[in-house]
What we know:
By secondary structure, this protein is mainly alpha-helical. Helix content is 79%, strand content 3%. It is built from five helices and two strands. Helix 3 (82-117) packs antiparallel against helix 5.
Amino acid sequence: MLKRARRILSILEQYLLMVLLLSVLVLSLAQIILRNIYDDGIVWMDALLRAHVLWLALIGAMMAVKENRHIAITFLNSYMNESVRSTVRIIKQSVSAIICFTVSYYSFSYMLLEYEYETIAFWKIPLWLTTSIIPITFLVMGLRYITHINDIEEGSSR
Length: 158
């Protein structure tokens, strides 16, 4: 059941990333054409594109954490034996999870404030909706770091 949920989430992430990237390209091109040919553009398009880029970056980061392909400093790994390396990886994953959960908590608090103040991001879209991706992705990344810890422990116990 958990494997199936992970697979569905992975497919949704890939499609969402693809749709967002395609829409950024199309909307950017449309805005460029409108500005260069008609000396006009859609006023709220830049804010929409900024929100799309935020979503793209965070979903991309979430996918990188899932595949354990995020930026890492590993130059000391060659100097450590396997048990020390596993311990260091567990510490890194734990600290990363704690940071992600902290960011998720505070960004959720920020999102609630934006909901209360009814700030508009662009057109008629509320700012809390565009920033809702922040607590969601950091929560998912924190959970994935914990999953990686479990994978490390299972690999070292074999």
